[in-house]
Specification:
The complex is a heterodimer of chains A (about 250) and B (about 625). With about 250 residues, chain A is α+β, with helices and mostly antiparallel strands. Helices cover about 35% and strands about 15% of the residues of chain A. Chain A has a five-stranded mixed beta sheet. Chain B is α/β, with parallel strands linked by helices and about 625 residues long. In chain B, helix 5 crosses helix 15. Classes of the chains: A alpha+beta (about 250), B alpha/beta (about 625). Chains A and B meet through helix 1, helix 2 and helix 3 of A and helix 3, helix 4, helix 10, helix 13 and helix 15 of B.
Chain lengths: ~250, ~625
């Protein structure tokens, strides 16, 4: 049985825009992206929206649904009450191109600034040996589908446009953590780079990024906090370790 | 209306930024050339990301009996010996190197106890062979390739001060025409999806790496990008498509709820022990072991279950037959009234593995069913049914250089190329195909460009021809809505050119496709050019129509059943038909299909098989003559 819903869809471009209200039928099992496609096919053929896999694997259909950063393909319509108004808006941290599509090029610029994996010079392809337990830590971060919801929700980016220059954001903190924890990466000062060149220090660990991650990556606990602790420098020296803990508590 | 046209010049233009395209770009750059990478969506979102199970490569990490000869045999059997043997040979020999290379670029595959790359079982593969990362191997592959491109750009930045001096990624750009001077490629033409503005690339070599055609069908695992662009571009440029009748329906797509119908359920579920049952609770695959595979597959549950522990002394479970066999079996069970409540069959792993093990090995399946269907696969069975997944047919290429036949300077790799998989692709052979032939296409294109004296020029006539097509959806009045035409096409191919085919339905399909095509010439796009999906679809529609016509006509011509082509009126595989490939060409107004003699295997490859097995596939005359 089809249920009726009101959708408020933001339409416009970089200059101006506003909400358009539509009534749509929703069938059993559908997600927000299905509804947007129905609106596109029947009422607004030029409604701009990004999507690809429709299975939560590619991270294209990121948008804000009732103000929350979500993947439209993974937001079930049965999470709303019949008759409820569902408001759909583009990601707020990035400039609008058109309707629900934003310019996410900031993220690709930041990706370019993270030095690539650097393997040991003496290992030939095929000779790599790593234990499962050692690759799992980095594998968690490689689950990232680059939906950029974490970037969109991070206050450092969302509320302060001027920070974009010096702050790479949670997506790239997990990229740096992934490389830092890679058993065979030979670049040794990645934590320091994260701190000094990518603005890790500006993160105040509110965990908003972790909350919106559709892959349930523990961005704050498993990547950002270990990077901030700079364990490599101090792990063999109990006094320095203790010192670092005390300083951290004092917020230095 | 937009007037601006950007102009670029590159040594090589790669259309498509999935695994094959990116691997081609890396190779061409490493050969010292400048490369434009064109992607229809954002960088890193290509359909490769959806691959789940793994990349097949005979590294022998889990079972040391594995090797390229075994992989070659499995691939030929899977394709029912219609494969281009040279492609299958190159693929089997080179895929281990291609997988190991990914590790040196930062990929993190799951490991064996010795710390090597772990390998898993999959349908049609004799030994555990698929390098994998849980069930998200495609994501690992695309991200690794994406990061390799970035690494090369960083290097160029250090050396030349400009990251985009030799490689530039053009995101959200669609190519609509291959430009030629005489018989040679001179460039490519397209538009930015974001602005609708036109873009011209002058380039002597174009690599097609555009993936598949699934969006022509209603139930499919493909994303919106799978509209057969490269297939259509090649046809219109004067090249040929080979064996387009062979379309793979993956046996296990989700069937419920309706909005997720077709989304892939990885074969790893079966590779890791999952079983298929019907509404009577029977493991029905034991009833569908074809004659050619009887000595390789267990005919009882006890032996099938023992195989997971001891592969040397037991035959494989029939759930791991090649995909075409399993898809047909599911189709038959549902038709016989033994299906699941929503028109599929049951796939159960919950009774086979502990819950924690399921979540560890199949995390994205667990997540997908939990979030989209309210099904906990650690506690209950899934409902699954066939979904259009892959096209074996594609651009006919020279195996070694990936050069497309008939057009100098045109290359093709990955799903858009044909021949490698014969009539049916084995799971896991796609990711390795991308890497092996992506690299070869990049090298082939680079060698071609370097061999040129005078480069072909883009003429004004070519540009205005391309331009008028781009303007068409805005100029007509009273035309139809592209979304409804697309839906009509999808219903038609699903019903008349789908998993089971007959002569009358195929003939009917061809007539109907012609009528949709005539109507599509007047298709209308509302609104402006800026990020307008209706406009984009109006242009993609022509590609889907060309591809569908090629599939339907090839399917009508092949009067037998083989791999991804099942004829109800000719249900048997016939060795006479193995001697022919079907070539599709475009004559300016329609697709024409003609048979071409398939090339016989050379002695040394034919000798890898037992004569008893070869007799099932080859005619007596062929075997009397022996290999090439």
């Amino acid at each position: 049985m089809a249920r009726k819903f009101n959708f408020r869809i933001w339409r416009g471009d970089s200059k101006s825009g506003g909400f358009k209200d539509v009534q749509v039928d929703v069938n059993e099992g559908e997600v927000v992206l299905d509804v947007i496609h129905r609106v596109q096919a029947t009422q607004m053929s030029d409604l701009a929206v990004r999507w690809n896999c429709k299975a939560g694997k590619c991270g294209s259909c990121s948008m804000e649904i009732n103000g929350k950063p979500r993947l439209a393909c993974m937001t079930r319509m049965n999470s709303f009450e019949e008759g409820e108004t569902v408001t759909v808006t583009p990601l707020r941290a990035f400039p609008v191109i058109r309707d629900l599509v934003t310019d996410v090029s900031y993220n690709y610029k930041k990706a370019m600034e993270v030095p690539a994996f650097e393997p040991p010079a003496d290992l030939k392809p095929g000779e790599y040996r790593m234990q499962q337990v050692d690759v799992e830590r980095s594998q968690e971060f490689r689950k990232c589908i680059e939906c950029f919801l974490c970037q969109n929700t991070c206050h450092v980016i969302r509320d302060h446009e001027e920070n974009k220059e010096s702050f790479s954001g949670p997506r790239f903190f997990i990229r740096m953590a992934e490389l830092d924890m890679h058993p065979l990466d030979t670049i040794k000062n990645r934590k320091q780079m994260a701190q000094e060149e990518h603005g890790l220090g500006m993160c105040n660990i509110t965990k908003c990024c972790t909350e919106v991650c559709p892959e349930h990556i523990k961005i704050t606990d498993n990547a950002i906090i270990p990077m901030k602790e700079r364990v490599v420098d101090v792990k063999y020296d109990p006094l320095r370790w203790l010192g670092s803990k005390i300083r951290k508590k004092e917020g230095i | 209306m937009s007037q601006a046209m950007e102009r670029y010049s590159y040594d090589v233009v790669v259309i498509g930024a999935g695994g094959a395209g990116l691997r081609a770009a890396v190779e061409a750059r490493q050969a010292g050339l400048s490369v434009a990478i064109i992607c229809k969506s954002l960088f890193g979102k290509a359909h490769t990301v959806m691959a789940e199970g793994g990349a097949a490569a005979a590294m022998g990490n889990v079972n040391e009996n594995d090797g390229w000869k075994v992989h070659f045999r499995d691939t030929m059997r899977g394709g029912k010996f219609l494969n281009n043997w040279r492609m299958a040979e190159l693929h089997a020999k080179e895929s281990p190197d291609r997988v190991w290379e990914l590790e040196s670029w930062g990929a993190l595959f799951d490991r064996t106890k010795e710390g090597k790359i772990s390998q898993r079982n999959f349908g049609g593969h004799e030994y555990p062979r698929l390098a994998h990362v849980g069930d998200r191997t495609g994501l690992e592959l695309i991200r690794t390739m994406q990061q390799r491109i970035v690494a090369l750009q960083q290097k160029d930045k250090r050396e030349f001060g400009d990251a985009e001096k030799y490689i530039k990624v053009f995101s959200e750009l669609t190519i609509t025409e291959i430009l030629k001077e005489g018989d040679r490629v001179s460039g490519a033409y397209g538009y930015w999806r974001e602005s609708g503005d036109e873009v011209l690339f002058e380039s002597a070599a174009v690599v097609l790496a555009t993936g598949g055609v699934g969006k022509s069908f209603k139930i499919t695992s493909n994303s919106w990008e799978g509209t057969g662009d490269g297939h259509a571009l090649a046809l219109k440029a004067g090249s040929a498509l080979v064996d387009m009748e062979f379309v793979q329906f993956h046996p296990t797509g989700m069937v419920w709820p309706p909005s997720v119908r077709g989304i892939l359920v990885t074969e790893s579920v079966r590779g890791d022990g999952g079983v298929l049952t019907n509404s009577d609770g029977r493991r029905f695959m034991f009833d569908y072991i074809p004659e050619v595979f009887k000595d390789k597959y267990a005919d009882n549950e006890a032996e099938a279950d023992r195989w997971y522990k001891d592969q040397n002394n037991n035959r494989r479970p029939p759930e791991l037959l090649p995909r075409d066999e399993v898809a047909r079996a599911i189709n038959s069970e549902v038709k016989a009234g033994r299906g699941s409540p929503h028109g599929g069959v049951f796939l159960d792993v919950s009774s086979r593995l502990p819950a924690e093990e399921i979540k560890r090995r199949l995390p994205s399946m667990w997540h997908q069913f939990k979030e989209l269907a309210d099904v906990d696969i650690t506690k209950e069975p899934m409902e699954v049914g066939p979904t259009c997944h892959y096209v074996m047919g594609g651009v006919k290429v020279d195996p070694d250089s990936a050069a497309a036949v008939g057009v100098e300077g045109l290359f093709a790799a990955g799903e858009v190329a044909g021949g490698m998989h014969g009539s049916n692709r084995l799971g896991g052979n796609s990711l390795s195909d991308l890497l092996v032939f992506g690299r070869r296409a990049g090298a082939g294109a680079a060698a071609y460009v370097k061999s040129l004296g005078q480069r072909p020029k883009v003429t004004d006539g070519e540009i205005s021809r391309a331009k008028s097509r781009l303007d068409a959806p805005f100029t007509g009045s009273g035309g139809e809505n592209p979304y409804s035409l697309h839906q009509e096409l999808q219903n038609l191919t699903q019903d008349l050119v789908g998993i089971i085919r007959t002569e009358t339905e195929l003939a009917d399909a061809i007539v109907k496709l012609d009528s949709i095509r005539q109507r599509s010439e007047k298709v209308r796009a509302d609104g402006g050019r800026v990020f307008n999906p209706g406009f984009h679809l109006a242009l993609d529609l022509e590609n889907m129509l060309l591809v569908s016509e090629s599939i339907a006509k090839s399917a009508l011509a092949r009067k037998e059943s083989r791999g991804g082509h099942t004829r109800d009126d000719y249900p048997k595989m016939d060795p006479e038909w193995r001697q022919y490939n079907h070539l599709s060409r475009w004559n300016g107004s329609k697709v024409e299909v003609a048979p071409e003699e398939a090339i016989m295997l050379p002695h040394e490859l034919l000798d890898l098989f037992e004569m008893d097995e070869l007799k099932k596939y080859f005619t007596q005359g062929e075997l009397a003559k022996g290999g090439k």
